[in-house]
Write a structure and sequence with these properties.
- The protein is an alpha+beta fold.
- The protein has helices spanning 26-41, 78-95, 101-123, 133-151, 193-205, 211-229, 239-259, 266-281, 283-290, and strands spanning 4-9, 15-22, 55-57, 61-67, 71-73, 157-158, 168-171, 178-179, 189-190.
- A hairpin with a 5-residue loop joins strand 1 and strand 2.
- The longest helix is centred in the middle third of the chain and has 23 residues, at 101-123.
- The chain is globular, with a radius of gyration of 20 Å.
Length: 296
């Protein structure tokens, strides 16, 4: 067995989702389950580890087991996006009450300091061999102030940190979606705007549809969130800034991983260069989505 994901079928024909990780990922995976269990106790559906796991096996590997969920991905329609908005709001309200938030805050601050230092080293040309190094330096130079602005925000709390399509699954009939994979929560002390912007990017902006539908569905998500928190103006940062921040932080992370000698696929660099360009090019569209939800 090697690190990865597996479907295990028991003798009773029960399906179990198996995640095999190396020793250096065990602590973070256990932390992930702590956040999932917390929000689950608060009434937010989340995928938690099964009793009897984790299991250490030969080769410095550890097995984590979860219920296999026969769910579906979110549909790009008004109903699913509205439900998703309400569910994410409830998720944030639950995570805001998580005990010992200072642990996440400290880990996040250390992460941001390391990334800012990496950016400065890249700009000082102390790191060689990075793809599109001239473009990367231009981006870092342009957005360095933005990273510091988000890092100094007083409105931060624990977030999920990775609300992509595969980590939000809807039941086949009715009810709210279930949230998976809280691994990034331990290093995600930031404004709620970042989780919100990431969802809009992955669930709406990256879906092929005309501009009016994008605006309609984006507002459906924000409207659902607004209904749950009972506030109209809950966004503190423009969505464009949020998406730029996420892309630049990801590029800095790739540079940091490269400096540590870890393999970074060219496709990862390509993806986040593209996401950065998309965020800047869709400024007007994002402003139309957030109309009425942004504190001026």
């Amino acid at each position: 067995m090697s690190p990865g994901y597996y479907l295990y079928v028991t003798e009773n024909r029960e399906n179990i989702f198996i995640k095999v990780v190396s020793r250096d990922h065990v602590a973070r995976q256990i932390d992930s389950d702590n956040y999932a269990r917390w929000v689950s106790r608060c009434g937010v559906p989340a995928c938690c580890m099964r009793t009897g796991f984790p299991i250490a096996v030969a080769g410095n590997l550890t097995i984590f087991g979860y219920d296999f969920l026969e769910y579906r991905f979110a549909r790009t329609d008004f109903s699913d996006l509205s439900i998703l908005g309400r569910s994410v709001a409830n998720l944030h309200l639950s995570l805001a009450q998580y005990p010992k938030p200072e642990l996440v805050r400290n880990s996040s601050n250390l992460r941001m300091k390391a990334l800012l230092l990496r950016i400065k080293k890249v700009l000082a040309l102390e790191q060689k061999g990075l793809p599109k190094s001239d473009l990367l330096c231009d981006i870092f130079r342009r957005e360095l102030v933005l990273l510091k602005e988000f890092g100094a925000s007083k409105s931060a709390q624990i977030l999920h940190g990775d609300l992509v399509i595969g980590n939000v699954l809807f039941p086949l009939t009715g009810a709210a979606p279930v949230f998976l994979d809280f691994e990034d929560s331990s290093i995600s002390w930031a404004p709620i705007d970042l989780d919100i912007a990431l969802i809009l990017e992955r669930f709406v902006l990256m879906t092929p549809m005309n501009q009016s539908d994008v605006i309609h569905l984006g507002r459906a998500f924000l409207g659902g969130y607004s209904d749950a928190v009972q506030r109209k103006n809950f966004l503190l940062f423009p969505l464009e800034k949020c998406l730029i921040f996420l892309a630049v932080r990801a590029l800095a992370t790739l540079a940091e991983l490269t400096a540590k000698g870890e393999e970074v696929l060219p496709s990862e660099w390509k993806k986040f260069f593209s996401l950065y360009n998309n965020a800047r090019s869709k400024s007007s569209l994002l402003k139309q989505i957030e109309d009425g939800f942004f504190v001026k």
